[in-house]
tRNA-2-methylthio-N(6)-dimethylallyladenosine synthase
Amino acid sequence: MTSSDRSQAVDVQRSYEIRTYGCQMNVHDSERLSGLLEDAGYVRAPEGADGDADVVVFNTCAVRENADNKLYGNLGRLAPMKTRRPGMQIAVGGCLAQKDRDTIVTRAPWVDVVFGTHNIGKLPVLLERARVQEEAQVEIAESLEAFPSTLPTRRESAYAAWVSISVGCNNTCTFCIVPALRGKEKDRRPGDILAEIETLVAEGVSEITLLGQNVNAYGSDIGDREAFSKLLRACGKIEGLERVRFTSPHPRDFTDDVIAAMAETPNVMPQLHMPLQSGSDTVLKAMRRSYRQERFLGIIDKVRAAIPHAAISTDIIVGFPGETEEDFEQTMHTVREARFANAFTFQYSKRPGTPAATMDGQIPKQVVQARYERLVALQEEISWDENKKQVGRTLEVMVAEGEGRKDGATHRLSGRASDNRLVHFSKPDEEVRPGDVVTVEITYAAPHHLLAEGPVASVRRTRAGDAWQKRQEARTGQPAGVMLGLPKIGVPEPLPAAAAPACGLG
């Protein structure tokens, strides 16, 4: 923030609340919005404020058919609260703001600020300008003004962090509006990425997730087709960085050098989220996905040959326009062959502004629902079978915060294995903090989690756990005890546990 911008910062502490919808990119953007607001003097409202804040920011998603209805419904509920609370401000950003622009203040004239995906750094200035001029400020940049990672960030986790390596997307998938809203791919310089990671590790972060709309296309903007595999290998040389993940890759750009880098770099985790979308070559062509079923399954085979214990997850859309029963059976066949550890399955819904929304052959809802249920049942069976193979294995689990909703009642703690499977384990006698690592033996498997019912074999206290403890003590002014099982909004849990990649990631 420049000195002139800072002079416009709030003169008294005002509270803020951010409501985030959509994908991991939006979650990370909200961390930046929080950082910007706190840098300008705002303070975060208590959890569960539910609109009881001086500034409420909606970071929106535009990919669902009813995304605008959800937004305007939420804005409508805040209108009477704003009337009762003089000086309250409402801001709308994200993909829906980029798409609808002036429509938002026309339909909800009590909104103070509308900003787009390319100029999130302007939020504090726009809020101040709206307050002084007493009129709505709508500012939508058509292209990226500055790479978002240069902005201040309030990270939600002390031990895990998102790191953006690119923004935008060069693909033209017919079901996705994201490229039109976030623009063409722009890559960060490798040195800038690695410098950010090194800074995070110095602060105690031990796990990072490399983030991009099409993460493994990294390098197309800087003219190096092997830039992504080189970046993975460079991450392996950062001392103190224990876990590296990335999301979401595109099969088109998933090359052998990336597989080799994953297999040969010890801190790159044996986990891959690879969006399938459909197993039918006909539907993939209609989607403008540049691979076919054989190519996709070939990638899976190569990954498993190089990394035998890799857990592979995916995204699948059911009921794309024109999908026949034969097309759907090709998807079921692909799922049987790939044996995904987990799958995010979606019923196709029209994304306004996408080519698919106006295609012929829209599938009746009841047909889509029936196919969806068959696919979910098949994947549940496969997920359970794949998890049962983990029984008897000894795994290192990074303790997480907010992963086990029943931990308090069951006297267990929860965390993630290296392959990203969720593990619930018996609470040891010694103190364990989020970010610490435990070694456990798996005794039971369910479709969506593993259980280690025996005693914990070992506890390794880590710098990440120290960072979590330090943050807790700074917040409370008291020495931090064990505070596991408390949900935190936006903690960057690696895929597939994090918010499903709902905005065309991959």
Observations:
- The chain has 16 helices and 21 strands.
- The CA atoms of residues 158 and 468 lie 5 Å apart.
- The first helix runs from residue 3 to 7.
- Residues 1-10, 481-502 have pLDDT under 50 and may be disordered.
